[in-house]
Design goal:
This protein is of the alpha/beta class. It has 14 helices and 18 strands. The N terminus is likely disordered.
C-alpha cells in the first residue's frame, strides 16, 4: 500500500512497527514532508502507535433456498422499454415466479434489445392489448419518466398491479392522482429503487441494521456518481421536463435508502441544490445535485452527479455510509478502487473489530417477495407508504432546489 505526497513514497508494509521511536516517526511523518494529515488510515496510525486493531475478512452467507423454485406464479407484461433498467426489472420478476407474456415497445432499438434478452415475450401493437388482457396480473414499465405515473394509473384502473422504474412519479400533481387511484382500485403501485432492492451489499446492510450491528442508524450519507455516456442517450434524457430533474431521477434511489435505513416514517427536505457545470450544449440539463434531509428516524445527505470518468471502468462508484450509535457501515456497491474485484463490498466498524464483508453470495429477495405480494395482497417487498414518501421528497427537493451557476 502506497501513500504519495510531494514526490515521496511511503511503503507501510516495509516499515518495522516494533522499531524504537515508531510513534515519533509516524507523528513526524503525518505532520511533515512524507505525508499530509489524513494520508494514513486510522488503522495504520493505530498500528503505528502500538494500538491493536482486529481486522476480519468475511463472506456474507447465501441462502439455503438459493436454488429453490419460486413459491408463486403470476403472468406479467411490459409496456415501455425506454430505459435499459427494464431488463433487470423483468429478471427480478421472473426470478420471483413471474411468467413474461407480452411486451409493447415504441422504440425499435430498445424493443429489439428487449426481445433478444427475452424472446418468450409476445410483441403486441398497442398497450391496450396488454391492459385488456384479463390474464395479466402485473405490468412493468421503464417508459419515459414523465409518462410512468399516467401509465400506472391506467394499469391500476384496468385491474392490474404496477411496477415502475424510478422515478415512478415526476410531479406532485401526478403523485396526488396516483394516491387517488391506489385508494380507488386497491392495487399496488411499486417503484423499483434498484440501488437498494437489487444490490446485494445494500440488502445485507439492511440485515445488519435490523440485527442492531451498529446500533441505531442516525445518518445516511449517499454519494451516487453516474457516467453520462452522452452518445447513447435519447433526446428525453437531456430534458428535465421529461426525466424529472437530477434529484427526482437518480436521487430517488438515495432518498429511498435514507428512509429505509433510518426507519423514518415522516421526513422533510432541509435544503437542496442543482446545477449544470459541464453540459452547456444542453442548458436545461442538470449534472449535479445534492439534498439534506430530516426524518423522524434520522438525518441524511445525498449527492448525485453525472461526472464518473471513463477510466473507472463501471458506470458509477456508488458509496453509502450508515452512521450508527455503535458503529458504522460503508458500502462500495459497484467497484472498490482499492483493487478488490467486482462489486458488493461492505465495510463495518464496531466496538470489537474492523470487518470487510464480500456480499456477492447474498440472495436478492425482491423478486420472490414482490410476486408473493401480488398473490397475497401484502407489502413485504416494498412498503407502499415509504415508496410514495420517497417520491414526494425527491419531487419537493427538485422543485425547491437552489440553482447553482458555478462553472466547472
Amino acid at each position: 500500500m502506497y501513500f504519495i505526497d510531494c514526490g515521496y513514497i511511503l511503503n507501510i508494509q516495509e516499515l518495522d512497527y516494533n522499531m524504537v521511536g515508531r510513534r515519533t516517526f509516524f507523528h513526524s511523518a503525518v505532520s511533515g514532508v512524507l505525508c499530509t494529515a489524513g494520508a494514513l488510515s486510522a488503522a495504520e496510525l493505530a498500528l503505528a502507535e502500538g494500538r491493536r486493531v482486529n481486522f476480519v475478512d468475511a463472506v456474507a452467507p447465501g441462502s439455503q433456498d438459493n436454488g429453490a423454485a419460486p413459491q408463486h406464479h403470476i403472468r406479467f407484461s411490459v409496456i415501455g422499454v425506454s430505459h435499459d433498467h427494464i431488463l433487470g426489472m423483468t429478471a427480478a420478476v421472473i426470478r420471483g415466479g413471474g411468467e413474461l407474456a407480452a411486451v409493447y415497445a415504441a422504440e425499435p432499438d430498445k424493443r429489439d434489445a428487449f426481445l433478444k434478452r427475452y424472446p418468450q415475450a409476445k410483441l403486441v401493437n398497442s398497450e391496450d392489448e396488454i391492459l385488456n388482457d384479463s390474464s395479466i396480473q402485473l405490468v412493468l414499465s421503464a417508459t419515459i419518466p414523465v409518462e410512468r405515473a399516467p401509465l400506472g394509473i391506467r394499469v391500476m384502473k384496468h385491474g392490474k398491479d404496477y411496477l415502475s422504474d424510478k422515478p415512478g412519479i415526476t410531479t406532485l400533481e401526478q403523485l396526488a392522482h396516483v394516491k387517488k387511484a391506489i385508494a380507488e382500485t386497491k392495487k399496488i403501485y411499486a417503484i423499483l429503487y434498484s440501488e437498494r432492492l437489487e444490490v446485494k451489499a445494500a440488502v445485507y446492510a439492511g440485515d445488519l441494521v435490523k440485527q442492531g450491528a451498529i446500533g441505531k442508524v442516525v445518518q445516511t450519507v449517499n454519494l451516487a456518481p453516474h457516467q453520462v455516456n452522452a452518445p447513447s442517450r435519447a433526446a428525453w434524457f437531456w430534458d428535465p421536463q421529461k426525466y424529472g430533474g437530477i434529484i427526482c431521477d437518480i436521487g430517488s434511489h438515495q432518498v429511498d435508502q435514507f428512509l429505509f435505513y433510518t426507519g423514518s416514517k415522516q421526513a422533510e427536505v432541509a435544503y437542496s441544490q442543482i446545477g449544470n457545470f459541464a453540459h452547456p450544449h444542453h442548458p436545461e440539463f442538470q449534472d449535479f445535485g445534492d439534498v439534506t434531509l430530516r426524518g423522524d428516524g434520522g438525518v441524511g445527505y445525498v449527492r448525485v452527479d453525472w461526472f464518473t470518468p471513463d477510466g473507472l471502468g463501471v458506470w458509477g462508484d456508488g458509496r453509502l455510509f450508515l452512521l450508527g450509535t455503535e458503529g458504522y457501515i460503508e458500502l462500495r456497491k459497484y467497484v472498490d478502487i482499492a483493487g478488490r474485484k467486482g462489486g458488493n463490498h461492505l465495510f463495518i466498524v464496531d466496538n470489537k473489530d474492523v470487518r470487510y464483508i464480500d456480499c456477492s453470495n447474498v440472495v436478492l429477495p425482491f423478486g420472490p417477495q414482490f410476486v408473493a405480494d401480488i398473490v397475497n395482497r401484502t407489502h413485504t417487498a416494498q412498503d407502499q407508504e415509504q415508496c410514495l414518501l420517497a417520491a414526494e421528497l425527491v419531487i419537493s427537493a427538485q422543485k425547491n432546489a437552489h440553482r447553482l451557476h458555478v462553472k466547472a
